[in-house]
Amino acid sequence: MLNTIMSETLPTDERYNTSFSRYLDEYRRSIENTEEFWNEKSKIIEWFRDYDRVLDDSKKPFFRWFVNGKTNVSYNCLDRHIKTDKRNKVAYIWVSESGNEKIVTYYGLYRRVNALARGLLNMGLRRGDHVTIYMPMILEAPVAMLACARIGVVFNVVFSGFGAEALAERIKDSRSKMVITADGAWRRGKIVELKSIVDRALELTENVESVIVVKNTNNEINMESERDFYYNDIIEDGYVEPEKMDSNDPLFILYTSGTTGKPKGIVHGNGGYPVWISNTMKWAFDPKDEDRYWCAADIGWITGHSYIVFAPLLLGVTSIMYEGAIDYPKPDRVWDIIERYGVNILYTSPTAIRLLMKYGDKYPNSHDLSSLKTLGTVGEPINPAAWHWFYEVIGKSRCPIIDTYWQTETGGFTIAPALGLGLPDLKPGSATFPLPGIDPVILDDNGREVKRNEKGYIVLRRPWPGLMLTVNNDDKRYIETYFSKFKDMYLMGDYAVKDDDGYIWLLGRADEVLKVSGHRIGTIEIEDALVSMKEIAEAAVFGKPDTIKGDTIIAFVTLKEGYEKSPDLIDYFKRKIREELGPIMVPEEIHIVDSLPKTRSGKIMRRVIKAVYLDQLPGDITTLENEASVDEIKRAVEELK
Ligand code: WT7
Known about the structure:
8-stranded mixed beta sheet, AMP binding, nucleotide-binding, ATP binding, binds 5'-O-[(S)-butoxy(hydroxy)phosphoryl]adenosine, Acetate--CoA ligase, acetate-CoA ligase activity
């Protein structure tokens, strides 16, 4: 059995340099001897109580790793290091848009986390309670995550670019008792008033009892007495004993949206998750003790959770943390930070690379980037032009590009070149090979494996420790979304091909999920917000390919009786979406039409709208009920030209 997997999955040793064979050995061991392999790899963290079993798959697809093991993520990120020579090592160098800088050591971070943990306990929070964190990229954000982890409080970070409705929805679904936020966030020299967004969200929810506010931008804010407290007033120095968490107790919930239903609260646990992310970071980036590592993502997304906060701290790495836009105040911001702090490992996204590439070579060329040794990307497939620019202009053709393919649900990297185990020859645009423990296969609609170079669904055949525990409050949805199309196998939702050499190439989403600047955007959330406006009858949202952002959002709507189409109305719709859902969710274009193409049973045919809009063949439209609507979309497109 294994031989067939190996020969299907991987190239043979001979075709690669000797170092690649180390990867092959580790990979083979992870498949042949899974329990022994993970028993060894689990020692990357410290356990208060050893687990009874490595893997329990008796209730699949609810796989449970390190059964009955007890540990604590905050303890592993902090207490463990301060007993060693990492005590005074820098954990974070924080840099703001305006160039302010703060440095915190592992011991300093430990002190801060304990002080907040004590504050949270004083306010009555207890193990098993839920908290929403809605914060900019400031040091108090990882401190809040770690303080919650320390006392067993499940946290739910909401990206600070989301608006009041989106925040309220997530606060409700996660049943948060508390919100930790800041007065504001800096965005391109302006203040985004986070606290007033929280105030509006709390009008829509009832479960929140208290709000903690960090002073960051010092703008004037409303403080509700009895409910709102300043961070500095509630923290208390001292030591808080870390809770002994079960491997499979939830650590956090992070929402991700799709094409149907509400956003899904992806739940990750206290055991498998830290084991997975720290091993994958070691394998993929191989950080050395003296390295400075910069993951230029936001803590509001899984990349920030796993690879700004937890994996680097678990491994005792020094990270750069940046609050602000990557091209502000000037397009050389990223290159300036690399030079100023001597960054060795830079992890970013294709969309960021394309944006910075647009400004031209003169910006990177005016900085000394010689400290760089490893580059990484995440979020979407990287196009060869961006890959070459990153490789040649930024990495001077001496830094490998680690293209990491994964998602919120997988906890950490799944497919990526493993620098720490032995690199394969890189091919621009391919995430290359699976990391140990990951067993990918590419299937057609009938569940048959496709031939080499043929496109299919990428599916993972075996569980791995980083797989989510479930969807919050919705075990059924967990099974239906991820384990139903192909029974007991994890459906990633992307198309992929495997080439003749066994390299895996990701080809984008197999569903209608949009990737806007690398972020997964749920069309359904935007459609819901549109149709909940009193003027709008129906809405259809889809993505238009964009050379920098990946997708841009396009909406077609029909109006209710009594409303007239006008540019002002469109502006008003956009403004409302910005307030409710946040700036990243605002459609670039909203078109008002008299009718939308529908099937005879009344389902809006987004596929047809998109095809007509993009001037492609709309495919089968025999089930279409109202053909005139297609002409209307064509006319709307004509008007744009
Ligand atoms: C989706 C997951 C993983 C953290 C950031 C996004 C796409 C992600 C790659 C890559 C091709 C990629 C997939 C995936 N994706 N990385 N290296 N190559 N596609 O997390 O919001 O959960 O989105 O992002 O479509 O399914 P996410």
